[in-house]
Specification:
alpha/beta; 2 domains; seven-stranded mixed sheet; about 40% helix
């Protein structure tokens, strides 16, 4: 990502025009002197007249103490580990520190650029300096003219990164002097890019779009993300929100586990013992696989999970049903799950699932609305060569006994299905398959497997079917 002044302006900081206007007033220059060229000339005049130290102090006084904007926070959520910025403030770094657990270098000087010449892990590169680092700011006409000579490694690394990565530019306008400097110094000198880049802008003319595309920059009209088509900050937030929703692992997970609040402890009800009819695979191990993945996900969401055996849960039913709840294993192997389905069937006002788990011939099935059936034969009958099919339910329901709370269920028809749910949960990208839904989500995971020995099943996920409810 390449982050410009517009992102910091959404946090309440002044834009470059406002900064230069303040410098001009201090120099008693008329307001009509602020042409595009003056955006670089006026800071130069200020430094010439009053000195570099006075210019640094003036800039510090013009940058108030503010918190990162929503655009900063959304940017930090994106699956990106290389950030460039022309901003002097430290709001981008702060938003990344709040979001990411890892430490990362903030590269400002030429010496730091030399030390971090190899890209490794999360980095923030501030090519025009930092307000807290006197002497690093690129702000005057002279600074812009000499930056290539004074910071060759920083600029050459930028050029290399532009060749080898796709960048998204946000917070820039076409008359922004920061963007113009990058455009002139780097883009035009490179000629044809090896990568395609994107720039989020307000509406641009056809000529401007043609010019950008000629340099490998695809313009994105951020006003398309503002219903009123008038607020750049609202448009940028809307665009970044959609981008995060499509790319961030935690965003995918939150679509399913979203109702759970942070700093929340959630009971995880598991089977107490191996089901006697499923002796061919260690059932408790399957439940533990799902429980471990569930706890890992809860930790990402800022929650914790507490495992409870189903025989104990039967004694604490009223308490458990008063909050959020996670159930592992189907009614065939989990006493508490079986009780819950029976309780809901008896209390007509408390139906929560549209599916049923039924014994059917030589196997079992998950039966959905309108008779949709997902059948799996008994894995004991697998002959070691024929591929078999198993199914598991992954569901989220509003808790009918406690409004505002949710019941989550991860349940295979047999143990191999429950185990496969745990494998499925290891990749956050799998949660991309779930629909946006504020209420119920029911999906059947289809698993194909072959028996190699009674305790080791080799399987693969064949698909996920969302049940319309």
């Amino acid at each position: 990502m390449f982050v410009g002044a517009g992102v910091s302006m959404s946090a309440g900081l002044p834009g470059w025009h406002e900064v230069v206007a303040s410098l001009a007033r201090h120099l008693n220059l008329p307001d009509d002197s602020l042409s595009t060229d003056a955006l670089l000339r006026v800071p130069q005049y200020y430094r010439n007249r009053l000195g570099a130290h006075a210019l640094q102090n003036k800039l510090e006084g013009l940058i108030p103490a503010v918190s990162p904007s929503e655009a900063h926070r959304l940017s930090a959520k994106l699956p990106c580990d290389l950030f460039y910025t022309t901003n002097f403030d430290e709001l981008l770094e702060r938003s990344l520190e709040e979001r990411r657990a890892e430490k990362f270098p903030v590269i400002v000087s030429e010496e730091e650029a030399q030390f971090h010449s190899d890209r490794s892990g999360l980095q923030v590169r501030k090519i025009h300096g930092s307000i807290t680092r006197p002497g690093t700011l690129v702000i005057t006409r002279e600074d812009f003219a000499t930056v290539r000579k004074e910071r060759p490694v920083l600029v050459d690394t930028l050029r290399s990164h532009l060749r080898s990565n796709s960048f998204l530019f946000i917070g820039y306008s076409l008359n922004d002097p920061d963007f113009a400097a990058i455009y002139d110094e780097v883009f035009l000198a490179m000629g044809e890019f090896h990568q395609k880049h994107f720039i989020a802008l307000p509406e641009a003319s056809d000529l401007e779009r043609e010019d950008l595309r000629g340099q490998g920059l695809e313009p994105i009209n951020i006003l398309d993300w503002d219903p009123k088509r008038e607020s750049l900050s609202a448009g940028l937030e809307g665009f970044l929100t959609d981008l995060v929703a499509q790319t961030d692992d935690l965003a995918h997970i939150s679509r399913f586990f979203g109702p759970l609040g942070r700093r929340h402890s959630v009971p995880i009800v598991m089977s107490s013992q191996a089901h006697p009819a499923e002796k061919y695979i260690y059932v408790a191990e399957c439940d533990l696989v799902v429980a471990a993945e569930t706890e890992r996900i809860l930790d990402q969401l800022g929650c914790t999970g507490s495992r409870i055996a189903d025989h104990r849960a039967m004694q604490e039913t009223e308490q458990l049903l008063s909050g959020d709840l996670i159930i592992i294993c189907s009614p065939f192997g989990n006493e508490f799950a079986a009780m819950l389905f029976e309780k809901a069937a008896e209390e007509s006002d408390h139906q929560f699932a549209s599916v049923a788990f039924v014994e059917k011939g030589a196997g079992r099935a998950i039966v959905g609305p309108n008779g949709a059936e997902f059948f799996a034969g008994d894995p004991v009958m697998a002959d070691g060569a024929t591929r078999k099919t198993e199914h598991a339910l992954i569901a989220r329901y509003p808790n009918p006994w406690s409004p505002g709370k949710s019941i989550f269920m991860f349940a295979g028809l047999y143990a191999v299905g429950t185990h496969a749910v745990g494998e499925f949960m290891r990749s956050a990208d799998n949660f991309r398959e779930f629909p946006d839904a504020e209420a119920s989500i029911e999906a059947v995971l289809t698993i194909e497997f072959t028996e190699h020995d009674p305790y080791d099943y080799k399987y693969e996920v064949a698909g996920l079917s969302v049940i319309e409810t």
